[in-house]
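Hi R.,

Here's the chain you asked about this morning:
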Amino acid sequence: MEIRGVTEIVEHHLRREIIIGTLAPGSKLNEIELSERLGVSRPPLREAFRKLESENLVVSIPRKGSCVAQMSLEDCTQIYRARIMLECAAIEIIGELGITDLTPLQQALTAELRFLPQDNPSPDNMLDFFNVMSEFHNKLVEVCGNRWIIHYHGQLRPTMARYQIMYLRMPGTRQMSLAEHEEVFALIRDGRYAEAQRTVTRHILKTRDSLIKGITASQPAA
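And the predicted structure, written out as tokens:
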């Protein structure tokens, strides 16, 4: 197998473990241990580290090696502010261009409703669950057709996934998210774009505020 193929497999494996929390924030990425566990040599492992560093999932510390990037209140706040800007811009463009083919959004909602489990997904299935639950937002951005908005929204996804999975593990959030996605879709379908922007903003801020409470509660007392 070519080294690039090995690197991509390692990237995918480590990305998944970081996003679902198997590799905890701040944990050291020991090259020898990972090399033995994954059955790969160290060069493709290091290349995978560099790729994940570009996604803000890994941090390289001079003379100390690589570790999983921390999650923080500041990081969470900045990510969700960026989401609001990008997704509201996408809705504005949909309105300006008079885009009426919202089939991708409808399909995302259908998949979300079908996939929505009654019980909590297992840790192994959590990333797949997140991908289904977040697809509405991805398709909202894609439908607008602006390649730069699509690009920057995509750049947020790996880091955003860590926070979103934390949110989706909170009781009641899955059903609430689906209901709010359906509301945003209905407003866009009916041409009520300003209302859709306000609704998606409230939806994202509600998620952010729940995460901030969760992160704050998990931090040790001073």
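Residues 193-218 form the longest helix (26 residues).

Let me know if you need anything else.
M.
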